[in-house]
Specification:
single chain, alpha/beta, Rossmann fold, 2 domains, 6-stranded parallel sheet, globular, binds nicotinamide-adenine-dinucleotide
Length: 359
């Protein structure tokens, strides 16, 4: 992999390789853009098939965090950490403490927390070595699991999508397909069932499927053909790139709105969704609930304020959907334009020297 070329292409500032021979920690931290402030982004643990795959994931995800923070109106940049390892077998206190020490060396340029394959509890160890963590369990002074507010944000996006597409935002009788039944997906299922939707679910982990189908009485789907199921809303809540050249013509949903990061294999998928009259709620707006929660933590956590901000995803997306129609521009492209505008606005304001050393 040509690393500098990959960084240039996406506009990255920094890529940091962290290795600890005692614990075997192999962690990569990507800092994409700190125009708006310190980079914020989770730490993923995954048994990547190669180092290139891990680097690529860190680069892609950290870029997404810049957009997510900017679109959410936060004064934070984008970053992401990935630990190469199996979350089921490789987690140790020492590994996470080593990660914490490396994080501390960045002196607040990057603040991290849970992501796929990690949980707040894992960072309790890391927290003993660094100040720069958010999303810790409440008992340790954090705001707790971000899955709940992320799921709320997904529901707001689903409702905004229904309103835009069908004129009313009720889930009653609507058919919702949820892919991925982890921290976010299972809560989306709970909320959608509670709101009267017909919910169909899929996960590659049979245990997750068993638990959710038993608890909510929902129907399981084959995880490998889930995207072809006819439905009102397809909610991808697992891995990225679920909308790709192989399946974009086969999708049979009216709306795509879910928590997964990087849902589009590339931006042209958004154009194709628009041409096929499938409404796409851009992932980095739909799944901003967790980010809004942990960013609020950095201001002194107020659950009411965080929830209020997440509820705002509904109005934000409704405006975006209308503007997208008015301008004949795919929702993902319009969302990126808004991000660019925010970065420019911030830079233009910050030309003014305040005399303070902090900015
Ligand atoms: P999680 O690790 O708790 O759950 C992910 C689930 O997806 C697991 O049950 C896994 O078995 C399943 N899965 C993996 N590949 C699959 C496939 N091909 N088909 C079906 N299921 C599959 O993760 P999570 O916290 O629920 O996050 C889900 C997605 O949302 C991720 O992309 C994550 O980056 C994103 N996200 C999460 C948060 C958060 O607050 N947790 C915030 C923003 C974005």
């Amino acid at each position: 992999m040509d690393i500098f070329e990959a960084m240039r292409r996406r506009g990255h500032e920094q890529l940091i390789f962290n290795f600890d021979k005692a614990t075997g920690l192999r962690a990569i931290i990507a800092i994409h853009d700190t125009t708006l402030g310190p980079a914020l982004g989770g730490c993923r643990m995954w048994p990547y098939s190669s180092e290139d795959a891990a680097i690529e994931d860190a680069l892609r995800l950290s870029e997404g965090m810049t957009y997510k923070s900017a679109a959410a109106g936060l004064d934070h940049g984008g970053g992401k950490a990935v630990i190469i390892g199996n979350p089921a077998t490789d987690k140790t206190e020492a590994l996470f403490r080593a990660f914490g020490r490396f994080l501390e060396t960045l002196n607040g340029r990057f603040v991290s927390g849970e992501d796929m394959g990690t949980q707040g509890e894992d960072f309790v160890h890391a927290h003993r070595e660094t100040h720069y963590l958010v999303g810790l369990p409440e008992a340790y002074g954090g705001s707790g699991d971000t899955g709940e507010l992320t799921a709320l944000g997904v529901m707001q996006a689903i409702r905004a999508g229904l309103r835009h597409k069908f004129g009313q935002d009720s889930l009653e009788g609507r058919r919702i397909v949820v892919q991925g039944l982890g921290k976010v997906g299972r809560r989306v299922v709970a909320r959608a069932v509670g709101a009267g939707a017909e919910v169909l679910v899929a996960d590659i982990d049979p245990q997750a499927v068993g638990t959710v189908t038993a608890e909510f009485g929902v129907e399981p789907l084959d995880p490998w053909s889930v995207d072809e199921t006819a439905c009102d809303v397809f909610a991808p809540c697992a891995l990225g790139q679920v909308i790709n050249p192989e399946n974009v013509e086969r999708l049979r949903c009216a709306i795509v709105a879910g928590s997964a990061n990087n849902q589009l294999a590339d931006e042209s998928m958004g154009d194709r969704l628009r041409e096929r009259q499938i409404l796409y709620a851009p992932d980095f707006i739909t799944n901003a609930g967790g980010l809004l929660q942990v960013a609020d933590e950095l201001e002194g956590f107020s659950p009411d304020r965080a929830r209020h901000r997440v509820e705002g995803i509904y109005d934000f997306l409704l405006t975006l959907f209308r503007e997208s129609d008015a301008r004949g521009l795919a929702t993902n492209r319009l969302a990126l334009t808004l991000v660019e505008e925010r970065l420019e606005l911030y830079q233009s304001i910050h030309r003014i020297y305040t005399g303070s050393s902090s900015r």
